[in-house]
């Protein structure tokens, strides 16, 4: 992370950055990422299967199934009122509460 930030990018691609971390460390990383985003005006392309982390990080989301976008929009809109059956199944499996 430090190596990427030192170059002062405008965009970082983060592919499953919290997948191998316990919840405490995940929370610390999300807090750090949000702080860096605010201080350095960073944009993230955040790829994750963890909907709780996505809800904490994302402004807009795209839901992909078999490489195709099945739903996209404002994060809270998609997570609170999913239109596609696949998105509904993901949210149900993640046990997200609104």
Give your account of this protein's structure.
The protein is α+β, with helices and mostly antiparallel strands and 98 residues long. It is built from five helices and four strands; from the N terminus they run αβαβαββαα. The chain has two domains: 1-53, no CATH class; 59-98, no CATH class. It has helices at residues 2-5, 23-40, 51-57, 75-80, 85-94; strands at residues 11-15, 43-47, 60-65, 68-74. The strands form two sheets. A two-stranded parallel ribbon has the order 1-2. It is globular, with a radius of gyration of 14 Å.
Tell me the strand percentage band.
15-25%
Largest sheet: 2 strands, parallel
Please state the CA-atom Rg, rounded to the nearest Å: 14 Å
Helical stretch tally: 5
Shape descriptor reads globular
Unreliable stretches covering 5 or more consecutive residues: none
Q: Domains counted in the coordinates: how many? A: 2
Reading the helices and strands in chain order gives HEHEHEEHH
What spatial order of strands do you see in the largest sheet? 1-2
Distance between the amino and carboxyl termini: 31 Å
What structural class do the secondary elements suggest? Answer: alpha+beta
Overall pLDDT: 92
- Helical content class: 40-55%
Count every beta strand, where a strand is a DSSP E run of 2 or more residues.
4
Tag the structure with descriptive keywords.
single chain; 98 residues; alpha+beta; 2 domains; two-stranded parallel sheet; two-stranded antiparallel ribbon; globular; transport; ATP binding; P-loop_NTPase
